Model the fold of this input.
Amino acid sequence: MAHKDVVNVGMIGCGFMGKTHSFGYRNVNPIWDPPVKAVMKCITGSRSRETCQAAAQSYGWQDYEADWQDMLQRDDIDLVDIGTPNFLHHEQALAAVEAGKDILCEKPLAMTLAEARQMTQAAEEAGVKAMCGFTYRQAPAVRLARQIIEAGEVGEVYHWRAVYLQDWIIDPEFPLVWRLDADTCGSGSLGDLAAHLIDMALLLVGDIAEVSAVLETFVKERPLVAAGGGTGLVDKRAAGQKGQVKVDDAALCCCRFANGAVGTFEATRFAQGHKNGHRWEINGSKGSLAWSLEDMNYLEFYKAGEGNRQGFRKILATEGDTPGWEAWWPAGHIIGYGELFINEIYEMLCAIAEDRQPAPSFRDGLKCQAVLDAFTQSARSKQWVPVPPC
Ligand code: SOE
Done:
């Protein structure tokens, strides 16, 4: 793609992700001064025209379209950002590739492995830049962890241990919103939460060879909600009735990595008291690392061989040379959840300017989808399942 000074962005999604990504585009230029600048051209979504118009106004987009397909046809859009419910990713990403646009698509990349494969192949063959939105990778403390691992300071990795704990659907009267409806989300805590853990494991430990999983649905029926919870679905639901929950509330999974390490993953929306408890730990021959999203500016690092001085040190990952921190504030002036979207979009803009795939790319999203698929197969068959190479 010809090098330009600006990237005109078209956002699909006016909900939670529409808001976080808009926050990213609004702030990426002043914070990072990227080699190509983001221009907030247009927003659209699967909701009403009024919702799109209001989102454009409050999030700071120049324009809006009521129909995402009309936005994709516009010549003044270079990058399409897909922040819609999972069932729309495949169709929208393929349409964006067809229109020759670069893409940033939310996770999980798709509803199925076959869809993710098709999206990745289409994007790579068309030569468009395609990013999958595993935002937590962009935390400076996580990038520091990668630097420490690559420098060999953890040694041979033995263990990966990760949890993603939430508690927002414990009430059986909580309705069957799109994140719980198999037709719109594909899977429950697996695709929504474990996907983040898998991406981290692939980034920090390496390829996963085989898996074993248990999935559980504690609340089997929930009240139906009207009009698809803003997803643009035809309303197949009637108020006052209940619908079947066909996705997992909790996922407990094990894996063997290709490099000989072993790992565990626990993702649940039934961990009373935990709001967004994404945590992981790595144990290696020379040291250990640990990170928690709710305390995301810190990385814990234990180095073996320090005699009676040994212990976990808590590194505040805010130094000027901490990767992903370079453009932020003086040391100790911490950042939070929203800033990770600024970092993510900066990476996307750099990839466009440097004519390379962003990290994480659609291929990284596909690798994660292959593990999600293997977890599902294993839970059904009660067998260990190999993960196909991607
Ligand atoms: C669900 O509650 C959710 O918002 C996920 O969809 C996100 O991916 C995760 O970051 C936080 O939780």
Observations:
- Confidence is low (pLDDT under 50) at residues 228-234.
